[in-house]
Amino acid sequence: MAKYINKLLDKFKFNNLNPVFTLMETKIKLEPNPKQTNIENINYYQQLIGSLLFLALAIKADICFAVIKLTRFVSNPSDIHFLVIKRVFRYLKGTAYLGIVYNKDNPSYIQGYTDTNYISDQLKTKSTTGYLLFIVGGVFM
Q1: pLDDT per position as a tens digit, 45-59
Q2: CA separation (Å) from 131 to 24, 71, 103, 134?
């Protein structure tokens, strides 16, 4: 996992970013870009999102929420979207060597948690629901 993350940081020249240990800032609102951006920015943003989508689905599930939120803006990203995606890469740099530990001696074999937020997305007035499953102490979904 860390090897692939470092490869991505090299590819996009994000090696010099300062690492952070929180994925997203709570005060930033992700809204559609009112202006049309140029095609180079769109292509670059789409490359960043594509790399993060693979990483989120294959290796690093903790970034799924942020990456899915950012994919809404692939057709016309703004400077705010680039700042947030850069923060995701800063988070990856800070957590590249962290992983999930499964402990076979854990007394609670399966645990589950769920949460619902009604109408959290003011743009689409949709609710969000999330869940988390632990198997022998490690996150499963």
Answers
A1: 999 999 999 998 887
A2: 19, 21, 21, 10
